[in-house]
Amino acid sequence: MIDVTNLTIKKTSDLLQKREIKALELTQAFLERAKKLNGKLNAFITICEEEALKQAKKVDELIANNQKLGPLAGIPIAFKDLFSTEGIRTTAGSKILANYVPVYNATVVKKLLDSNVICIGKTNLDAWGHGSSGENSDFGPTKNPYDLERVPGGSSSGSGAAVAASQCLAATGTDTGSSVRLPAAFCNLVGLKPTYGLASRSGIVAMASSLDSIGHLTKTVYDNALVLNVTIGKDFFDSTTTENRIADYSKNISRGVKNLKIGLPKEYFAGLDQSIREKTLAAVKTLEKLGATIEDISLPHTKYGVATYYIIQPSEVSSNLARYDAVRFGFGREKFGEEAKRRIILGTFTLSSGYYDAYYLKAMKVRRLIKEDFEKAFSKVDVLISPTSPTLPFKIGEKSDNPLQMYLSDIFLVTHNLAGVPSLNVPCGFIKELPVGMQIVGPHFSEELLYQVGYAYEQETKFYDNRPNI
Asked: Averaged over 205-222, what is the pLDDT?
């Protein structure tokens, strides 16, 4: 008998449409696995059994009535617990919102539910999205399915662990500086941070509004494109959103990389773990063998990326978290965790009289220079490739007492949020049985091209077949 929890979205959708499996039995299998493994992984804050079974029965009825459904119909997915879900509590990983139940769905949640996905549950995260490891959740840390003593990456820690452990077939995330791509790299998954404004942030608990992007994690590149097809688009409730530019991101996914120019930013390979450097360069060699040409590129302001990010981001955090004063939401500010307090203090200081020009204004000027670095690079090459993380997944507790070391986990990631460009993490192998990811970065609204490059590499290597033994 086929193990339905081990399939891709594409294969599962085919089986559902051919009526070889029912959405209800599929959902029951994923619910059983989610509940069974949650004690080990702590990937879910809330498992939505009643809602999931109800949705699955509806999909089976639609199929039985010969309704034409999209490829996500009947697919079990999970929502990061920053996404508002009507009638289902949404905690943001913080005890401040432990009992908060929204009366509406986030725009992205609504779009996915309208495409008849099955919501398995709400995934764990670093509280408010503040973290790179999954250890800052008020509901306990999430563990990496490939090694339970290690972190899965953050802040979308539960989403990464849940997909990697086959507790669902896809999960949403948010990415303000690393929070989709780092869990994807640490959990052997495909994770997309789209162009800023490609998908609506309405109904998602805000962290840093000029940096926040929604994103999602899947096992394969093709599956990732299927999810993006549904989530993108103009939204009246988010003025930063744009009209759809591509109707179907999976349509041209197999075009390959022949004659594409790939840039290697030298700044992303300096001071890097040698084994990760070798894995990334081996992946580049594979793409070169498939017909791409490789060129060295410089992004000279990269060295200022982390410092710039950790001025702008806490400033916006301090503003966004000011609303949680117990007047409208949950408990008072005394319930904020250490990392939230740290960012509120940093942000408030940066925006205070006498320091605004010295810090925030200067950071915004450097942000512009970082954006110009990417614009110049993309005038010479089609995409950039670099490591996603400077290290392998680290042990739980290893960096929790050293915030600066934790922040440096995002060193290859934050500049893409500062520039607003899209970035796709794709698995590129294993070191000591721990996953390694590389990221493919393109100009604004180049997601279709990123998928083409990622798919060509994935089909050659198939690292997604190496699932954790848990």
From this structure: 96
Q: Could you confirm whether 179 is annotated as catalytic?
A: yes
Per-residue pLDDT tens over the stretch 167-187: 999 999 999 999 999 999 999
If we measure between CA atoms, which residue out of 10, 18, 16, 46 comes closest to residue 31? 46
In 167-307, beta strands by DSSP E: 170-175, 190-193, 213-218, 261-265, 293-297
Which two tokens mark 82? 């920053």
Q: Which tens digit of pLDDT belongs to each residue from 18-32?
A: 999 999 999 999 999
Please indicate whether residue 279 is annotated as part of the active site. no
Give the residue carrying structure tokens 């989530």.
231
Q: Is 318 marked active-site? A: no
From the candidates 155, 157, 315, 400, which is the catalytic residue? Answer: 155
Choose the catalytic residue: 13, 22, 80, 157.
Answer: 80
Burial class (CB in 10 A: 0-12, 13-18, 19+), 289: exposed
179, 202, 400, 423: which is the annotated catalytic residue? 179
- What's the mean pLDDT in 294-302? 97
| pLDDT band, very low/low/confident/very high, at 327 (cuts 50, 70, 90) | low
332, pLDDT greater than 90: no
Tell me the C-alpha distance between 264 and 443, whole Å: 15
- What's the rounded Cα separation, in Å, for the pair 313 and 14? 42
What is the set of domains in the chain, with CATH numbers?
4-465 (3.90.1300.10)
